[in-house]
Amino acid sequence: MNTQDIIAAVEAVQAAILANEQHIESLDRAIGDGDHFINVRRGCEAIAALKPELLALSPATAFNRIGMKLLSTIGGASGPLIGSFFISMGRELEGIAEPDGKHFARALAAGVDAIKSRGKADLGDKTMLDVLIPVSRLLLRLADEGGNRDALCARLKEEAELNMLATRDMIATKGRAHFLGERALGHIDPGAKTSQVAVFAVCDMLTA
Question: Is the CB of residue 166 less than 8 Å from the CB of residue 200?
């Protein structure tokens, strides 16, 4: 994985999120603050604008630069969460010129841990972590096992889809949705949906 791969992944995620705008916004209107998609789109646009600067950077430095940019760009609680995610990924990759699959898996795990710590959330809280944690854990295991990239990505997509759908049956304990109590049942978490879309986009980019 090099910085060009990172940029390609970001562009793929941006395109996929825009394609799912209506669905994500409807989920956020139902149980969220109503600004989730706006913040995500703003973050994607900010990263895309960094492309000329990122190309000359190592993957570790590129992730750190993305994280710092998002901290100052995305509003609400999302900025610190997603900014910390990228900064922690960069920190994990320091000193590695061209990370391999195992390096990336560990970096993703570090980023997810940063979201957990910053947001004080975990599995079952009806957030993006209900997708990111199981996907990260599966990637760590599959990266150690080795094997075919297509098969690995298919497993990751299956895991993301399954856990995104599972948030429909959860009662939220974080964010605005937790004020709704049982009224949030039956609704997929918008952050979980966005995370599933991002996982699909990266996997499809890697296997195209």
Answer: no
